[in-house]
Amino acid sequence: MHQLTASRRRLLLGAAAASAGALLTGCTSNDTGEGDGDRTAANDRPAADDKPGKRITIGYAGPQADHGWLNAVNDNARQRAEKYPDVTLEVTEGSNDTAQQIGQIETLINRQVDVLVVLPADGKALTRVGLKAMRAGIPVVNLDRVFNTPQAYRCWVGGDNYGMGLNAGHYIGERLKDKPNAKVVELAGLDNLELTKQRTQGFDDALKNYPNIKKVARQAAEFTVESGQAKMAQLLQAQQDFDALWNHDDDQGVGALRAVDQAGREDFLMVGGAGALSAFQAIKAGRGVLKATVLYPPTMAASAIDLARALGQGKGVSGLAEFEIPSSLTCYSAVVDKENVDQYMSTGFK
Fold it and tell me: What is the pLDDT of residues 274-287, one digit of tens each?
């Protein structure tokens, strides 16, 4: 807990910093370094400066965990905080109701937590409560869904939706570049979400590098197993001949694979998205159409806790020239296939 002081106000202007280990391990657990299949999970790797410091309280507010990825995000935050004996984590009950989540965050502000980590159900709708925290002298680490203004957070940590599509497109493109008149289809997520549009844009931009490849169909699903199965069945019925599929989300991919199996199709390759354990296991087994998945790592929540701790303790940066933590940190969307899946198995979410 804290009393609002001039030094705390200066903290929000950039006097605090995080360890490079926090920046370069939690969020980039999807690096491409060598591994022997026993690589330690991101949450089990300490930050560079993990020596106990001043005791602080971090408030964590996320949406309802109604999706495998969101549940993994919440778990990563809790597990990372448990690594630090000097951190107390106050977690709100997740909600997709913006008014309820605003109320939960205001409760944390009133309790005078030292730092806030917020994954808003709706970034635009929750911007005002981020501003309220910052004005109260509580630095905010904005996780994934960004607030409308940088004034509402000290640091943003999130994934690269455009990069997901870009890397999926290049992976497919390199495998089809020598095939004349190659055809691909896309199973997207919710079309009313900006992240879905970004993933599609990245995919389309990547395919521009391969003039022999044409996207012949796109179907939007809803990030659920049921929608993935239904929409994939429609795609398979409408498109009797194609060479590759990019599916935006591994949860809906479970349903998509059911539809593929029911149709008896195995004449194309499939690339998933996010990094579910079931996808990793299928890739490792090497049976079926799923050959790779593009990460949207839930370990970003562990990095957010690292950054929040550093902000609360005013620790310096190790390994970076700047005195302050960055204002934003974008996680890389690595492609995981049979060649490197063992390195990432421990990060897969259920």
Answer: 999 999 999 999 98
Same domain, 22 and 150: yes
Beta partners for residue 196, in sequence order? none
In whole angstroms, what is the distance from residue 120 CA to residue 310 CA?
21
At 318 the pLDDT is 64
> Are 169 and 249 contained in the same domain?
yes
What angle is formed at CA 243 by the lines to CA 343 and CA 193, rounded to 5 degrees? 70
Task: Give the residue from 93, 83, 140, 90 showing the smallest Cα distance to 115.
Answer: 140
User: Which residue type is seen at 285?
Assistant: A
As a whole number of angstroms, the distance between CA 345 and CA 335 comes to 13
pLDDT for position 22? 38
| Whether 148 and 14 share a structural domain | yes
- Beta carbons within 8 Å of 98's beta carbon, 6+ residues apart: 120, 121, 122, 125, 126
DSSP labels, 16-62: ----HHIIIIITTTT------S-PPPGGGSPPS--S--S-EEEEEE-
Q: Which tokens in the block code for residue 203? A: 């995919």
d(CA 37, CA 344): 8
How many residues in the chain? 350
Is the CB of residue 26 less than 8 Å from the CB of residue 80? yes
Where in the sequence is the domain holding 217, given as residue range(s)? 161-295
Tally the domains of the chain.
Answer: 2
* Residue stretches of the chain with pLDDT short of 50: 1-26, 28-40, 42-43, 45-46, 48
pTM: 0.82
Contacts of 2 (CB under 8 A, 6+ apart): 8, 112, 114, 137, 138
Q: How far apart are CA 253 and CA 49, in angstroms?
A: 39
Tokens describing residue 185: 């289809």
Beta strands 335-337 and 115-118, pairing class: unpaired
Picking from 168, 143, 162, the residue whose alpha carbon sits closest to that of residue 154 is 143
pLDDT of res. 79: 95
Sign for the CA dihedral angle at 175, 177, 181, 185 comes to positive
CATH number for the domain harbouring residue 247: 3.40.50.2300
